[in-house]
From TrEMBL, chains A, B, C:
<protein>
    <recommendedName>
        <fullName>Peptidase M28</fullName>
    </recommendedName>
</protein>
<dbReference type="InterPro" id="IPR032589">
    <property type="entry name" value="DUF4910"/>
</dbReference>
<feature type="binding site">
    <location>
        <position position="205"/>
    </location>
    <ligand>
        <name>Zn(2+)</name>
    </ligand>
</feature>
<feature type="binding site">
    <location>
        <position position="335"/>
    </location>
    <ligand>
        <name>Zn(2+)</name>
    </ligand>
</feature>
<dbReference type="GO" id="GO:0046872">
    <property type="term" value="F:metal ion binding"/>
</dbReference>
<dbReference type="InterPro" id="IPR012353">
    <property type="entry name" value="UCP015244"/>
</dbReference>
<dbReference type="Pfam" id="PF16254">
    <property type="entry name" value="DUF4910"/>
</dbReference>
<dbReference type="InterPro" id="IPR036388">
    <property type="entry name" value="WH-like_DNA-bd_sf"/>
</dbReference>
<feature type="domain" description="UCP01524 winged helix-turn-helix">
    <location>
        <begin position="368"/>
        <end position="443"/>
    </location>
</feature>
<feature type="binding site">
    <location>
        <position position="199"/>
    </location>
    <ligand>
        <name>Zn(2+)</name>
    </ligand>
</feature>
<keyword id="KW-0479">Metal-binding</keyword>
<dbReference type="InterPro" id="IPR032622">
    <property type="entry name" value="UCP01524_HTH"/>
</dbReference>
<keyword id="KW-0862">Zinc</keyword>
<feature type="compositionally biased region" description="Polar residues">
    <location>
        <begin position="1"/>
        <end position="22"/>
    </location>
</feature>
<feature type="domain" description="DUF2172">
    <location>
        <begin position="78"/>
        <end position="169"/>
    </location>
</feature>
<dbReference type="Pfam" id="PF09940">
    <property type="entry name" value="DUF2172"/>
</dbReference>
<feature type="region of interest" description="Disordered">
    <location>
        <begin position="1"/>
        <end position="23"/>
    </location>
</feature>
């Protein structure tokens, strides 16, 4: 009497058995992290971050004591769970946390007692419209206990008495745990990449975001950087609030930021703009998605969603958007046991890493130039810039990129603005600017003169 | 030989017989006012205002002497009419003002003489395309006399001689009459509601506007008000010009204004923006109509129309729009005997009063707030704001309203702006702000600090 | 073995035989200029300008010595050509410049030698997709020689040896020639009309532009002008660069400008905006095309195209757009022998002259006015402005034009802005302003007070 589990269904007992011999791929990381029972505090997050440190040795793990005031909130007691089950009168487990860690209401208080069927039912959560799926439910701030199960299984529970065990702890002397990685660049100005790491066995939400952020960090670490990149792996809401409360100085260095989430499932890329609406990061993501020729959607800011809610609160108003595929609540697998390893497509993780990497490239290379030969067009032929670098359309686009960069390099248009206005790929605009710079036809505009 | 008249067709002889026992409904008011032969001056307006004083005892009636210079104009001689007819050689009345007061060209000069059929014809007005309807025609500023009649009736007039009588007076020692009601609020800042009261027996144009304004005033009088509300019942064009010329001080207090007209006929609400185009009243009407979910249309300002032409002349440039249903000239009954009591729907009057009332509510409650906990989201749960006030979608909208108000209360966004940006109903935004204010999460921004 | 030539095909030998007895029509001018073999320098341009001086006696011809530095460029050696042919072993001409002057690669270096079929082929240019047409090819800045021919003819050339003669000269002591006409107005502020005159026998590109500019100049010369009009007939690119380099003072007087090109072929008017995007000339052309009720297209600026590329380089950033019919590269006849006299429609030239003339009228008459009776509407009736100048719709539009001009003459809206906002034809707005000015209801806003 358990849910029909896929072969990849998590079993709490195997939570920490990820093998270091696995090839270090984004999807491999998702597979290793999937079985762990995470929450907004506790050992599940610590275990997750310990695995991430295998991929990112410089990752720093922070522990913030329960009870610490953080902005308008307080760090809650730390929750841990060893086991949980419901037995019938025959002593048979009818619900078993060890079969699937979604079975327990996240942050359930400890309980060990007998209940009637009716009493038990008040602590059960299921989805009548999706009767085969286990829902994901939490009760962080209202003390409660409960079990989540497939609706079919719930209906099949006969009258009678049930023994309930939730072997959990809520430790007021515990801590909230988060991970932070700083990749220093040549500038103190920072790009923030944030992902939530508080969900138990849900693959798309948000092991996909964790994997993309991890492999993006590994990629960026290998290249010179203008910006410093700060990656935070935090529990949702309370984690970003905790981080913000401890980093009011750091926050002032953040020039651009993205929340990374829901990047492995199906559906098109969807970008939700920052509260500012036309921040460079908003424009950069829009241009990169445009250039990708992938179908995608750009949405305005709204104050609901992931941790961008906190970064974009009016007091901070950071230029942080949220890049995902199909947003939360818009796919039927959302917050159910169907958000499993089968739901995440390895190639979507790679594609997302590429898109984030391209956004980083735009932010890194975007700047203002001044045309040093602004009166009429300079004679391109004698500088070898008249013919295209390739043949056909590429050549025509290259020629147009040269002309656009020359025409708009008036100290008022960034390369990003030129890519937007010309409709040409950013990479082509960037290369055209490099070629013109090499010919002494452009000069970068320095911050002070800009 | 008269037009086919409906049972409700006006008879000048019964003009002042409205019964006080009628229930005081908007449509009842329209019915009482319908038979009166109004013009831009004269006893028809006085009689109308006397009836309005039964509904609005504080209404002040102003008399401005003929010959008074008003802006670029002069108050004309006062026109009154006792009788008018055309008789054939047998002495039979073939056109009779007492059958319908549209039969006489409004502002006709007095005449008593015999004319040939051809001579008479030069003074007849009819509608070949709508041969059953009597047109409404005026000649305020070019002395003339004439009769309006159904085109079928005109064609049926045989050759012969006709005796014509128009028993009218044009009194250079007369006056222009208008009504004005001030509902004082806690502020000297004013909202202007203007409607024209110069048309004879036309029900939609503009007894509908008069009835809506009257019952809106009764409604507002019963509630506390921030703004003072000024209602003017004026003859079209010359009336608003006269009022403006006498109120150059008052005009400076007008913060918002609406012309109320054509509110009883069929068709969707149509709002014509003020000359400013994005005045608060323009935005408030747009949001109220959006929230109503009624089909409607928003149009840009144009310098033709009703008295908004005068209020929005460049010297005054007041934020006054015009709210109607189907605009003038766009329905076939316009300015004909078909604009009768059958054409006005009582429920449309009520709906219009409700819309005006909601616009008033937006203007009254719209203000700027400051989020007192702007760093991250405040913890709503411990303040009882996390769960919705109702169930289902209402709850989700309520939660979103709370988040939007918190996010945008940065002293830069009014509640109206938040309603616009969030797409949520203004009333929900208003209630969310009230709830947050009660929790000390918001503070109103005072005028001086704003 | 020659291309199938139309009766109007150019023969270099008859180049200068234009008859002064021809009626001086735009199309007649195109016909006279068509046979001349022009290039960016040389006698073809001189001959062209000499003919234009018959139409525009004040046209000044400038000669700028080869080797002169002009902005980032240098005036090239002057190219002239007397004859060119390819003969087969039998001495038969298989390609003959005298049959069509497109046959020679423009700016070919001199050559007189024998070549194998394969050697010759490297110097041949044809269009496989348009096998009947001779392409137009140039090599101004890379020394080369070559022949252009129909692809069918190229394929029909058998193996064997060929004698090649190109009897051309490249004279480093030569000059670049251009024409310039200034029509002085009452103001030193200038309108620039620019057209390229460097293409050999191509009728639409750009004899059409030359003809339109010429007849526009003749038209404007007959009327009083506020602006001074400067017409330049210049070789493409190097010509405008040369002119700009010699006129850095003049450039500062240019208030508006248009490049005139491709105005005789089929297709709709297409306007490419100046780099500024909302310059008066951009708005004037848009309103004139709108008022014309002709289908048309307005495009944003792009840094590719005709000499607007130079005028709109960031250092100059002149308000110069480009008005054409179907733009370059978007019709199959472009830069081929099919762009011949049959391709140009005489009535399209007339229509283009009319459009340019109307744009000029807008620029001449566009100004700001102040309503001298801005409080309420002035009484139009007593000034004879109440009834329309014509009947029906014209009358209604006229009345609306009066009201719009009164309402928006607040010193902030030009007549052009009023035409845009009202949707009414500019000419009607202009006439309404004149009528109101005559009634002392408007006063022009002087430059100093504006």
């Amino acid at each position: 009497m358990t849910s029909p589990l896929s072969k990849k269904a998590p079993q709490a007992s195997s939570a920490a058995t990820g093998s270091a011999e696995q090839p270090r791929t984004p999807f491999g990381l998702v597979e290793r992290l999937f079985p762990i029972c995470r929450s907004i505090t506790g050992n599940g997050v610590r275990e997750t971050l310990a695995i991430l440190r295998e991929y990112l040795p410089e990752l720093v793990v922070h522990e913030v004591p329960s009870g610490t005031p953080v902005l308008d909130w307080t760090v809650p007691a730390e929750w841990n769970i060893r086991d949980a089950w419901v037995k019938n009168e025959k002593g048979e487990k009818v619900i078993d946390f060890r079969q699937h860690n979604l079975h327990v209401l996240n942050y359930s208080t400890p309980v060990r007692s007998w209940f009637t069927r009716a009493e038990l039912d008040e602590h059960l959560f299921s989805l009548p419209d999706q009767p085969d799926l286990i829902p994901y439910r939490t009760s962080y701030y209202q003390p409660n206990w409960g079990f989540c199960l497939a609706h079919h299984d719930r209906l099949a529970l006969p009258e009678g008495r049930y023994e309930v065990c939730i072997d959990s702890t809520l430790d007021a002397a515990g801590a909230l745990t988060y991970g932070e990685l700083l990749l220093p660049g040549s500038s103190q100005e920072e790009v923030l990449i944030s992902c939530h790491c508080c969900h138990p066995s849900l693959a798309n939400d948000n092991l996909s975001g964790i994997a993309v952020a991890t492999f993006l960090a590994r990629h960026l670490a290998e290249h010179p950087r203008h910006f410093s990149y700060r990656f935070v792996f935090i529990p949702g809401t309370i984690g970003s609030i905790t981080w913000l409360s401890r980093n009011t100085e750091t926050v002032q260095h953040i020039q651009h930021g993205l929340v990374a989430t829901l990047l492995g499932g199906p559906g098109n890329f969807t970008y939700k703009k920052s509260r500012r609406g036309a921040a460079d990061v908003d424009r950069a993501v829009a241009v990169v998605l445009r250039d990708s020729r992938l179908p995608h959607e750009i949405r305005p800011f709204s104050p609901y969603g992931y941790d961008e809610r906190q970064y974009c609160s009016p007091g901070f108003n950071l230029p942080v958007g949220c890049l995902s595929r199909t947003p939360f609540g818009e796919f039927t697998e959302y917050h159910t046991s169907a958000d499993n390893l089968d739901f995440v497509r390895p190639e979507h993780l790679s594609q997302a890493i590429d898109i984030f990497s391209q956004v980083s490239n735009v932010l890194e290379t975007n700047r203002y130039y001044r045309n040093l030969s602004p009166y009429g067009e300079p004679q391109l032929g004698r500088r070898g810039l008249y013919k295209g670098v390739g043949g056909g359309t590429e050549g025509a686009d290259w020629q147009m990129a040269i002309l656009w960069v020359l025409n708009l390099s008036d100290e008022e248009h960034s390369l990003l603005a030129i890519a937007e206005q010309s409709g040409l790929p950013y990479r082509l605009i960037e290369r055209a600017a490099a070629a013109l710079l090499a010919c002494d036809l452009l000069a970068p505009v320095t911050q002070s003169s800009k």
